[in-house]
Fold this sequence. Notes:
Blueprint: E1 2-6, E2 10-11, E3 17-24, E4 32-38, E5 45-51, E6 57-59, E7 67-72, E8 77-82, E9 91-98, H1 103-106, E10 114-117, E11 121-125
Parallel strand pairs: 2-11
Antiparallel strand pairs: 1-3, 3-8, 4-5, 4-9, 5-6, 7-8, 9-10, 9-11
Amino acid sequence: VQLVEFGGTWVQPGGWLRLSCEAKGSIFSINDMAWYRQVPGKEREGISCINLSDSTTYSADRVKGRFTISSDSARSTVYLQMNGLKPEDTAVYYCAAINYYSEDVCLGDGSNGVDYWGKGTLVTVSS
């Protein structure tokens, strides 16, 4: 399985971006997907995840109301719509296929429960 992220770029505070993650290969084994992010020198943190069967989601409190995760099974793609971006949202955003759908895995640091990682896409929020 290969995960490829798209959409990271520079944006001004208050702006928006939509990140995409395309899954390729033996994707039939993937049931749940997640987005994590990491600022250099800091611990990686879970942002949001989605169950691909029923579209239920978890989101971190710091992004609730601003970020929305969604999926498109036909395109084998997961999205992260990010609105109201803040400078503290600046990070490398990683897509992941997780093997256990739980709040601990979805919102953890990614050290447990992740089967596959994308290479990441950089989001920079600054004026």
